Amino acid sequence: MRGEALKGHLELLLLAAVRARPAHGYAIIENLRSRSGGNFDLPEGTVYPVLHRLERAGFLRSRWSEASGRRRRTYEVTEEGLTELQARERDWREFSRSVEGVIEGAT
Amino acid sequence: MNEFRRIEDYLGELRRELPGGRRFKGRVLSEVEDHLREGVRREREDGVPVPDAERRVIERFGFPQLVAGRFAEELAGSGARSAAWAMVLATLGVMLLRFLPSPALGELLGMQANGFFEPAGPWPGDILPPHLRPAMDVAQFAFLAALGAGAFALWRVWRGGWGAEIPRGEFPVVASATLLALAAFAISGVADTVFMFQRAEAVPGSPSPLVHTGFAGVRALITATGGYFVVRAVFRLLSLQRLRTN
Q1: Fewer beta carbons below 10 Å: N end or C end of chain B?
Q2: Taking 50 as the threshold, does the pLDDT of residue B163 lie above it?
Q3: Mean pLDDT computed over every residue of chain B
Q4: Are B104 and B191 contacting, i.e. CB atoms less than 8 angstroms apart?
């Protein structure tokens, strides 16, 4: 998928990726890649600024832990983040249905 | 020799490119290091030698300039917000201190004092040394600019719900006006202090020179603090802008 198109939906995708359980950055990106069948293949470093933005907005919270002798930052979704995720999922489904409708009507 | 030389080099370059303070950079670099090392660990599990694993993981992560640029985009909003607050608070502090000892405020507070904490007059009016007059005129004019800049910044922040940033196009205007105001405050502070000392000698019952010195000190402190924060905010925004355009 084209990077620019993906960039617009990255917040929704990241919130969805950590909904089930808390995860660190690497695991979140791997989750995105595997669940999209390898289609969502962004430069991995560009995901971290978005994680920070979501945390500043109060949709994610994070904490340090220790793993293999290294400091590791783990993210989890907040109550506010869950509400936001549900709202964005609704918006996305509606948008997706509308696009489908237009495309099918044109063929 | 360090086993993860490429990762260390990458982190060094990212450290140089990243915007923000030391604490912010520390957090980002720790996260990135964990990410890269985790990637190498998994590549090695698949039998990839360390140098190749490092190269692959770094390639997937993206150029340091790209990653730093994205962080700059995220920080630009909060940078402009802090700048707006710095400008608003500096201007309000300047205005408050400038007008605190005014006769009108003295009357309002029921104090028998004029602009220089003197007892009620009549006393000689203008004994400002002639060489200080132009500086005071410039300062008075610049205070109007400060009032305008402060009110404008305040209005922009208020209109955005006390959390929005000043649009980048308007930022240089507000920042320059605020810096001008701080400079004016410094000039008038010196002039006022000289004036106060002269009046202290001329007007019986005036507060001791110690009071004037203390008041001048507080003004200087507020001016320096406000100036520091405004200048820091301006430089931070400029460096973020540079990263965003890279």
Answers
A1: N
A2: no
A3: 73
A4: no
Taking the CA of residue A106 and the nearest CA in chain B, the distance in Å comes to 38
Angular region, A11: left φ>0, alpha ψ -120 to 50, beta rest: alpha
Instruction: Tell me the three state secondary structure of residue B121.
Output: coil
A45 interaction partners in chain B (CB closer than 8 Å):
32, 61-62, 66-67, 70
What distance in Å separates the CA atoms of residue B98 and residue B185, rounded to the nearest whole number? 8
Minimum mean pLDDT range among A34-43, A88-97, B133-142, B220-229: B133-142
Cβ contact (<8 Å) for B61 and A68? no
Pick the residue from chain B with its C-alpha nearest to A75.
B31
Ranges of each domain in chain A: 3-106
Task: Give me the DSSP letters along B175-208.
Answer: HHHHHHHHHHHHHHHHHHHHHHHHHHHHSTTPPP
In the predicted model, what is the mean pLDDT of chain A? 88
Angle at B53 between CA B48 and CA B59, to 5 degrees: 140
Q: Find residue A74's DSSP bridge partners.
A: A24, A63
pTM of the prediction?
Answer: 0.62
Using omega within 30 degrees of 0 as the cis cutoff, is the peptide bond preceding B124 cis? Answer: no
Structure tokens at B170: 């308007």
Name which of B23, B27, B32, B38 to mutate to probe chain A: the one with the most chain A Cβ atoms within 10 A of its Cβ.
B38
As for the ipTM of the complex, it is: 0.89
How far is the alpha carbon of A50 from chain B, nearest alpha carbon, in Å?
8
What span, in angstroms and rounded, lies between the C-alpha atoms of B91 and B150? 5
